[in-house]
Amino acid sequence: MNQMLEDLKKELKYEKTNSCVQCGYCLPVCPTYMTMGKETHSPRGRINLVKMVGEGRITDLSVLEEPMNLCLGCRACETACPTGVEYGTILEAARAAITRRKKFSFPVKTLRNTIFKKVFPSKSKLNLLTDGLWLYQKTGLQKVAQKTGITRALPFNLGQFEAITPTVTSPSERRNRFKRIPAKGEKKYTVAFFTGCIMDAMFQRINDLSIALLSHVGCEVLIVENETCCGALHAHSGEMDEAKVLAKKNIAAFEKEDVEFIINNAGGCGAMLHEYDHLLADEPEWHERAKEFVRKSKDISQILVACGGVPMNKELPGRVTYQRSCHLTNVQKVTKEPVQLIESIPGIDFIEMKDKDMCCGSAGIYNIVNYDASMEILDEKMKNVKDTHATTIITTNPGCLLQMKLGIEREKMGKEARALHLVEYLAEAAGIV
C-alpha cells in the first residue's frame, strides 16, 4: 500500500505541491475562481486536492476531475505566485493521472483516439478535412445551412463557432507552398517556420502572411518536412505519452536544418514548443536535444523586433486594444514585443483594456468542452473590450482570435469592431495585403 502511494505521489508530481503556501496571491488572477467563486476552482484549491490525494487523504481520483477539467491552464497563477509554484506541471500531471484511470465510453474513446492519434498528427488528414470545409464555404452550402438554421442543431454549441470560422484557402494554395523563401534585401537570419496543425489547416492565410513578413524584414524562411502537431492539445487533455511522441518527431525534424531560430505565430503552440525540455526531462538523451530546440524557439514578434521592426507604408487610423495570449505572456514571457510592434503602426490610438492579462476563455478547446464556463469568462472580457471603444482587437493566438470574434458577435459589435491576428494587422500596415 505504501509503495502504491509513493508511486502515485511520483505520478502526480506531489513534491511540487509543497512549494504552495496557500497565500492566495493566485486568486485574483484566476479566471475560474473569479467567475465561479469556489475554492476548488482556484489554483491553490486544486493544488490542495492533489496534495490530499498524494497523502492518501483522498483515495478517489475522480474528485480531481471537475476542478482540473474546468481549469483553463492559463497559468496566470504562476506569474502571480511569490514562491514559484510550477502549477502547469502539477495540472498536467493530475490530468494525465485521471486520463490513465478513466474508462471512456466506446464513442468517446474512439473519438479521442481518432482526433489525437490520427487527425492532429497527420497533415494529409487535416488537408482532407480542410478540403471539405473549403467546398462547404465555396459552394454556398454554408450560407444555406446558416439561413435554414441547421447549424444551430450542431452538438457542443459548434453552430456558434461555425459562424466565425475563417475562410480557408483552396486545396491548391495549401499544397503548393514553397519550402524555402528568400530574404528580401540583406539576409539577417535563416529561420524555420513552425506551421502547426490546426493553424496551417484553418489559418493558412496568417501563416503565409507570417512567412511574408519574416522575408520582408530580412529572414530566409524554411518550411520543414515531417513537422507535426506541437502536442499542446494532447498534453492539456492528459495524453502526455502522445505529446512526448509528437515532441520527439518535431525535434528530430527541425534539428536536421541549419537555422538560427524556429519561429511560431501561435501563443499556445509556442508555449508547448517552449517547454519540450520539461516534457522530456526524464529522458536524458531527448532532454538535451529538447533544450537546444527550446533555445531556438521564438515567437514571431520577437524576431520581427530583432530585425528592426516592420517597415510601414500605410496609416491605419482607429483605436486598437490588445488581447494577450495567456501562454505567450505567462509561459513564453513575451510581453513587450507585440506591444512595441502595435505601437509602431502609424495613425493608431492604442489603449490597454482593464485586466489586460486576464484569459479570454478560449484555452485550446476549452470553449467547446466547457462552453458555459468559457462564455462567462468571455462576457467579462468583452465588458473591458467595450470600455476601450476599440475598433480593432489584436490577438497573438488563433484560439484567442476566434474567441474575440465570437465575443464581437455576442455583443453585436460587428459593425464597429473587428478582431485580427497581430500578423494580419502588421501585414496590412506594411502593404503586404
Structure description:
It is a single chain. With 433 residues, the chain is an alpha/beta fold. The chain folds into 4 domains: 2-101, Orthogonal Bundle (Fumarate Reductase Iron-sulfur Protein, Chain B, domain 2); 106-162, no CATH class; 171-305; 312-429, Rossmann fold. It has helices spanning 2-11, 31-36, 43-54, 62-69, 76-80, 87-101, 106-119, 123-138, 141-148, 158-162, 171-175, 198-202, 204-216, 232-236, 240-254, 267-274, 276-279, 284-296, 300-306, 326-331, 336-343, 366-369, 371-388, 398-410, 422-429, and strands at 180-181, 189-193, 219-223, 261-264, 297-299, 318-322, 348-350, 392-395, 418-421. The strands form 2 sheets. The protein has a 5-stranded mixed β-sheet. Strand 8 (392-395), helix 24 (398-410) and strand 9 form a beta-alpha-beta unit. The chain is globular, with a radius of gyration of 22 Å. The mean pLDDT is 94.
Q: Strand percentage, roughly?
A: 5-15%
Subunit arrangement of the protein: single chain
pLDDT averaged residue by residue? 94
Overall form: globular
- Count of β-strands: 9
Unreliable segments of 5+ consecutive residues: none
Q: Give the N-terminus to C-terminus distance in angstroms.
A: 64 Å
**Rounded to an integer, what's the Rg over CA atoms?**
22 Å
The tally of domains stands at 4
Task: Count every helix, treating DSSP H or I runs of 4 or more residues as helices.
Answer: 25
Major beta-sheet overview: 5 strands, mixed
Helix content: 40-55%
Give the spatial strand order of the biggest sheet.
1-3-2-4-5
Which structural category fits the helices and strands? alpha/beta
Organism: Ammoniphilus resinae
Enzyme class: oxidoreductase
Domain 4Fe-4S ferredoxin-type: 10-39, 61-85
Cofactor: [4Fe-4S] cluster
